[in-house]
Amino acid sequence: MEEIQNLTDKELAEQLRGYGANPGPILASTRSVYEKRLLKLREGVAAVDKLHKPRTKYTEVPDDEERSPPPKPRSPRVRKRVVKKVEVEPEEVDDVDNSAASDLTDNEPSQTSMTDPEPSAKSSGGVAMYVKVVILLIVLFFVYLVYINMEPSSGNRVPKIKGD
Amino acid sequence: MGEKSVTELAGIGEVLGGRLKDHGFDMAYVVLGQFLVLKKDEEMFKDWLKETCGANAKQQGDCHQCLKEWCDNFL
Question: Is B5 helix (H, G, I), strand (E, B) or coil?
């Protein structure tokens, strides 16, 4: 570093050019940065590339292939969690789906019967799809009720519930 | 750019502006001059900025981008 500081402006510029750099005028205000540049060039090779090549930073993006496998093994686990919540019993997590399904049929209250026709839903993409469809139907039903009541001419057409 | 103070540059606030002024860079065009003398090299300019007034990476980037765009439009 001291040696670099003892260089004349001209010599410093020449040395920089020797490394392939293209320095501007070595002035009082620019000298210091150019000295540092020369130091970097002497120490490392990468610095030269930075000067001339466009800066692009590549961050690794996982392939789509890497993402697809995980969802499949996850779905049975999601199911198991649903089972766990309802049953409140510690289930063996390592069980294959068939045993979990059989547990469902044995112990379940009516709510989990919804998860029963699982094997077919699982093949098409898991529990979530089926549940989503059911929820959608419920929501559509309520929207329908609202729509009916919005019409000015008709009276209240909400179906009466006995014992309401 | 005209007679704008150095603090009007992107990334340069009161503190950094004060330090630049201490080094004699009191107007925006003087910093522009430095940028041009460094041949509009991004890394060199950022290094210089960091050395002269202690700008962090974001401030360096903002100031460089500001001057680069000005040059692209008007130089």
Answer: strand
Rounded CA gap, B10 and A155, in Å?
A: 65
Q: Please give, rounded to a whole number of angstroms, the shortest distance from the CA of A24 to a CA of chain B.
A: 5
Domain ranges, ordered by start, for chain B: 6-74
A37/B47 touch (CB, cutoff 8 Å), yes or no: yes
**Preferred mutation among B6, B23, B42, B43 to probe A, highest tally of A CBs within 10 A:** B43
Amino acid at B48: W
Annotation: CATH topology of B6-74: DNA polymerase; domain 1 (1.10.150)
Residue B10 CA to residue A51 CA, distance in Å, equals: 24
Tell me, yes or no, if A29 comes closer than 8 A to chain B by beta carbon: yes
Which residues does chain A have within 8 Å of residue B34's beta carbon, measured at their own beta carbons?
29-30
A36 touches chain B (CB under 8 A): yes
CB burial string A140-162: b at 16+ within 10 A, e below:
eeeeeeeeeeeeeeeeeeeeeee
Long-range contacts of B57-60 (CB under 8 A, 24+ apart): B58/B11, B59/B11, B59/B12, B59/B16, B60/B11
Is residue B46 within 8 A of residue B60, CB to CB? The reply is: yes
- Dihedral sign, CA of A90, A96, A102, A105? positive
Tens digit of each residue's pLDDT (9 = 90 or more) over A46-57: 555 656 655 545
Read off the pTM: 0.49
ipTM of this complex: 0.86
